Amino acid sequence: MAPEQVTHRGGCHCGRVRFEVEAAARLRVAECNCSICRRSGFLHLLVSRERFRLLGGEGDLTGYRFGTGAANHLFCSACGVKSFYVPRSHPDGYSVNARCLDRETVEAVEVFPFDGANWEANVSALRERTADA
Predict the structure, then answer these.
(1) Residue 115: closest CA among 92, 89, 97
(2) Largest CA-CA distance found in the chain, in angstroms, rounded
(3) What is the CATH number of domain 5-129?
(4) Where are the domains of the chain?
């Protein structure tokens, strides 16, 4: 049985970019060790496109692509925070940075490691652990 979904809200540091996402109150998130996630401390909450809504700040987002160019990393152009992006592993969804969620609706956060430094060899394990995304 899937956990009950709640509406989480969140955004960037300056508040220009705001979003909401439907997910469990008790979150399971991936801590990736790839070059960009390791440097930014991103904790991945992977969700389908239908469970994500951008509430404000679309015009304040700046995109960044590297490597294969498949992932679209989206940063607030004012404060530089990446609160969500379109990941290479789930191109029909979003990866939300659990650290950018407002705390009121988050009951707990379970973090599991993901070896994104060796992405090709490990992406199937990520997809299996986030099958509801």
Answers:
(1) 89
(2) 41
(3) 2.170.150.70
(4) 5-129
